[in-house]
């Protein structure tokens, strides 16, 4: 059920918010053992909020645009009364959050109901949601495969049909990678559009938060509430010039992924090919900046309680903290140069398209994927196509291709659509047209 339909049923009294909330929580408890997407169920808070909403409706008072819609948040968003874990046990002795994160507060002000916190890579440092403390999140379309990360719990909860929308964060691809692997929609908005107040940081100069959902319309309504603005686009999307990113973004793609992107291009009246220079170096710069900022943030705690960290996270953070200043400065210079290049591209095109990942989700027991004819770490290279684009701060929508007859495994594949800063309205309108024409969209996992 779409978010708009759910809200209409609850507002019209066809469906009790409390009943729907109870069913959602029971569903989470019954099914999540297959996926390990949920870390905490917010049962008392959710039921109380749902009862109050039903009373509000019964008394004829106005209700919000997300009335009765249950949602979950990646475990680095503050939830009032709970300790924010950021996927780690090292924060367990922190005081509980005194308030919700700002975007959670805005959603609740429109009568949405938070029902769960969701699994993630420890401190958002990873692309797999393999968490030493809370378990590995499995892909709902095949539980022997990765969900992606670091917002894997958020993507999996939507892909499994357990929640209509969830919140995640994206520093170098942590929304776009799991959205692609799980077959759902994920938006990395323009950097700075959504407030980060009450969200545990990873690399502050790159961090962005955004939603996962099952359709463009659902992404739109949730993002509008969080941003406090509408994303209306009144021009004809057929007049948009669409550029296909080549070079770095054309390597090692599966045949189904290439075919899906070609079908999209063929549906667009105005297209061109675009190659970004030094995309490999831009990706390296994003690695360096992330490592340095993350390492610096955690250095005081690493000096006192290093053994509380997942060993893999600890090693990466310590390595980042030891990076010389000259290396970080060079990475920032390259970032600025690459960002200017990418911004200038939008003088010639309206939307760019690129793959989100090289192919379908790797198996849990699969250590490598093929890149450039070589077997490389699957976990380290899932962000191959997302990391360079993070540097520019532009809105990027991860969109699922539809199921393909040739895809024998019937696993999702995703593409990225990129627009100039502040052009979420155009990006969503363009994607909505493709969704309605059947060129985008993947069904929820069967269960």
Tally of separate domains: 2
**E-strand count:** 17
Shape: globular
CATH superfamily of the largest domain: Amidase signature (AS) domain
Arithmetic mean pLDDT? 96
Low-confidence stretches: none
What fraction of residues sit in β-strands? Answer: 15-25%
CATH class category of the largest domain: Alpha Beta
By CATH, the architecture of the largest domain is named: Alpha-Beta Complex
Q: What is the C-alpha radius of gyration, as a whole number of Å?
A: 21 Å
What separation lies between the terminal Cα atoms?
Answer: 16 Å
Count of alpha/pi helices: 14
Please give the largest β-sheet.
Answer: 11 strands, mixed
Into which percent range does the helicity of residues fall? 25-40%
Which secondary-structure class do the elements indicate? alpha+beta
CATH topology of the largest domain: Amidase signature (AS) enzymes
- The strand order across the widest sheet is 1-3-2-8-10-9-16-17-13-11-12
Summarize the structure.
Its EC number is 6.3.5.6. Helix content is 37%, strand content 17%.
Key descriptive features of the protein:
2 domains, EC 6.3.5.6, Amidase signature (AS) enzymes, 14 helices, alpha+beta, 447 residues, globular, 37% helix
Description:
With about 450 residues, the chain is of the alpha+beta class. The protein folds into 2 domains: about 220 residues, Amidase signature (AS) domain (Amidase signature (AS) enzymes, Alpha-Beta Complex); about 160 residues, Amidase signature (AS) domain (Amidase signature (AS) enzymes, Alpha-Beta Complex), CATH 3.90.1300. The chain contains 14 helices and 17 strands. The strands form 4 sheets. An 11-stranded mixed sheet has the order 1-3-2-8-10-9-16-17-13-11-12, with helices on both faces. Helix 7 runs antiparallel to helix 14, helix 9 crosses helix 10 and helix 9 packs across helix 11. The longest helix is centred in the middle third of the chain and has 26 residues. The model has no long low-confidence stretch (mean pLDDT about 95). GO terms for molecular function: asparaginyl-tRNA synthase (glutamine-hydrolyzing) activity; transferase activity. It comes from Acetobacter senegalensis.
């Amino acid at each position: 059920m779409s978010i708009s339909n759910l809200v209409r049923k609850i507002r019209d009294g066809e469906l009790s918010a409390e009943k729907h909330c109870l069913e959602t929580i029971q569903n989470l408890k019954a099914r999540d053992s297959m996926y390990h997407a949920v870390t905490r169920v917010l049962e008392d808070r959710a039921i109380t909020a749902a009862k109050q909403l039903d009373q509000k409706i019964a008394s004829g008072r106005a209700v919000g645009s997300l009335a009765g819609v249950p949602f979950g948040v990646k475990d680095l968003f503050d939830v009032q009364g709970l300790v924010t874990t950021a996927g780690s046990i090292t924060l367990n002795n922190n005081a509980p959050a005194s308030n919700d994160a700002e975007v959670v507060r805005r959603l609740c002000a429109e009568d949405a109901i938070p029902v769960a916190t969701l699994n993630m890579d420890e401190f958002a440092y990873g692309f797999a949601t393999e968490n030493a403390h809370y378990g590995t999140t499995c892909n709902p379309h095949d539980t022997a495969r990765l969900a992606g990360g670091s917002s894997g719990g958020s993507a999996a909860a939507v892909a499994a049909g357990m929640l209509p929308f969830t919140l995640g964060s994206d520093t170098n691809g942590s929304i776009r990678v799991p959205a692609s692997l799980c077959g759902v929609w994920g938006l990395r908005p323009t950097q700075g559009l959504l407030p980060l107040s009450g969200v545990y940081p990873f690399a502050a100069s790159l961090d962005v938060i955004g939603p996962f959902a099952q359709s463009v319309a659902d992404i739109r309504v949730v993002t509008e509430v969080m941003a406090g603005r509408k994303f209306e686009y009144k021009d004809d999307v057929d007049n948009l010039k669409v550029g296909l990113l080549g070079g770095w973004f054309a390597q090692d793609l599966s045949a189904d992924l290439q075919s899906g992107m070609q079908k999209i291009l063929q549906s667009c009246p105005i297209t061109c090919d675009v190659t970004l220079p030094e995309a490999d170096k831009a990706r390296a710069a994003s690695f360096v900046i992330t490592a340095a900022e993350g390492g610096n943030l955690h250095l005081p705690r690493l000096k006192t309680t290093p053994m509380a960290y997942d060993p893999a996270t600890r090693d990466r953070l310590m390595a980042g903290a030891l990076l010389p200043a000259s290396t970080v400065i060079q990475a920032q210079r390259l970032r600025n140069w690459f960002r200017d290049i990418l911004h200038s591209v939008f003088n010639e095109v309206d939307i760019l398209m690129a793959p989100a990942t090289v192919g379908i989700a790797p198996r849990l027991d699969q250590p490598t994927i093929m890149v450039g004819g070589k077997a490389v770490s699957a976990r380290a290279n899932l962000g191959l196509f997302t990391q360079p684009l993070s540097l520019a701060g532009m809105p990027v929508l991860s969109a699922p291709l539809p199921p393909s007859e040739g895809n024998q495994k019937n696993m999702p594949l995703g593409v990225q659509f990129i627009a100039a800063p502040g052009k979420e309205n155009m990006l969503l309108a363009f994607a909505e047209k493709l969704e309605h024409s059947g060129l985008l969209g993947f069904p929820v996992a069967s269960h």
